[in-house]
C-alpha cells in the first residue's frame, strides 16, 4: 500500500514576507493604481469593501465607488431589501440621473418627506400618470406649510409649476451648466418631445462629479456597485432581481467556494441569456485547483481566502485553510494564464499588505476590519472608556447566522441553511468591535497612499508592473519585530498605524 504524501509546501502569509526594494526613477505623479476588478471592470483604486452586514450597505458602497473602489452589498437581507440598496447606489450618480425618483401630484407632503428620507434627496420632479412633468417640489416649497398639515396637504398644492425650466434628454454637460446658471436653478429636469421625464440634473451632483475624479462609474455615469449572492434556495431569483435593479457585479461566494452547486451557479449565470452580461465573481478558494474550477465555469474574477479574516474562526473550527499569501499565489497560477483577475479577501491589517497581495498575484483586495470603523458602515458608534468603537462581526458568527427575531440570509455561506434551531448552529466567526476611524475618504486616502509608496519603493508604475517586478523575501519573527515600532513607548498613533 502506498501512503500518499501528506505535507504540502510551507504556507506563507503577510507577516512572513517583505517586498524587496527596487530601482525607481518614478515621480509620484507617474504612479497609477488602476487595476482590474473583473475581466471587464477596472477600478482606479483596487479596494473592495467586504459583503458583511457591519461593513457594506448602500452608504458604504456609495463612499467606496466615489473613492475609486467598489462596495459589495451583503446578503443578510431579503431580496427586495438588497435590490433596494442597489437602487440607492445607482441613483447616487455623479452626473445625469437617468431614472429619477418622481412623485405624483396627489401624494401628501408626509409621503414626500418619507421618500426624501429613504433616498436622501431634497427635491422631486412631479409627474402625472403618463410620467409627463407637471411641476417640481423641493424642501423650499415645504417650508411654508406647518408640519402638522403635511398629512393632509397634497404635493400639487405647494409644488412649483410655473416657469419650469427643462432640457432635452440628450443635453450636454456644458449646455446644462449654462441653463442652470442662467436661470439660477438647482435642478434641471430632462424631458422628451412629449414632455415625459427622462432624467434630472442637479447642481450638487455636477459639483460632486468634479469632487470625485476617480469615482468608479458605469457607462451612464452612475456609481458601480456589487452585491453578494449564494447558490442556495432563491439565489437565482436574488441574482435576477439584483440585475434588474442595475447591479454591476454579482459575487457568488461561500466560505468554501470549491463546491459543485456554487460552481454550477456561476456557470449558469455566465451562460443564461438573462444574466450572462453581468460580471460574476466566484469564491472563496485557496488553491490552484479551486481557482481553476471558477475559471472553467467562466467567472470574471476569483476571490481568494479561506480563513484569513480578522473575525474568522474557520481555520480553528475546521482545521482547514491556506495562509493568505500562498493562497493568492496558488490561485493566480490558474487565473493569470486565463486572464481572470484575482481578489485577495481578508486578513489585511496595514496598507503595506495591499502591495504584498498584488505581488503574490492579486489584482485587488477586499477589506472588512480595516473599513468597519468608518463613518459610512451600518450601525452606530459606541463610546467605551472615552474611545469610540463600531461593531464588527463575521458573517459566520452566531449573531449573523442566528435568527434572534430576524431571518438570517447568510447561513448558506457556511453550509447551514437548513439548520433551523439556533442551538445547532456551528459558528465560524466571532462578533466584536473596531475603533471608529472617521470618514472612508480619509481611510481610503491612507490605503491608496500606502500602495503608491509600495509602488515607488518597488519601482513599479502600474499594478501589472508591480505584479511582475515585485519579489518577496521570507522573514523571521525577529525581522517582523524589527518591522514594527520597537524600543519606544508610542505616544501618538499615526492615521495609518493603530496599536
Ligand atoms: P478582514 O480580515 O478584512 O476579513 O476583516 C474580511 C473577510 O472575512 C471573511 N469572513 C469570514 N470568514 N468566518 C470566516 O471564516 C466569518 O464569520 C466571516 N465573515 C467574513 C469574508 O471573506 C470577508 O470578506
UniProtKB/TrEMBL annotation:
The active site is at residues 312, 413. GO terms for biological process: GMP biosynthetic process; GTP biosynthetic process. Mycophenolic acid (MPA) is a non-competitive inhibitor that prevents formation of the closed enzyme conformation by binding to the same site as the amobile flap. In contrast, mizoribine monophosphate (MZP) is a competitive inhibitor that induces the closed conformation. MPA is a potent inhibitor of mammalian IMPDHs but a poor inhibitor of the bacterial enzymes. MZP is a more potent inhibitor of bacterial IMPDH. Signal peptide: none annotated. Gene3D superfamilies: Aldolase class I (3.20.20.70). K(+) binds at residues 307, 309, 312, 482-484. Keywords: CBS domain, GMP biosynthesis, Metal-binding, NAD, Oxidoreductase, Potassium, Purine biosynthesis, Repeat. PANTHER family: INOSINE-5'-MONOPHOSPHATE DEHYDROGENASE, INOSINE-5-MONOPHOSPHATE DEHYDROGENASE RELATED. NCBIfam families: IMP_dehydrog. Homotetramer. Catalyzes the conversion of inosine 5'-phosphate (IMP) to xanthosine 5'-phosphate (XMP), the first committed and rate-limiting step in the de novo synthesis of guanine nucleotides, and therefore plays an important role in the regulation of cell growth. This is Inosine-5'-monophosphate dehydrogenase. It comes from Nocardioides albertanoniae.
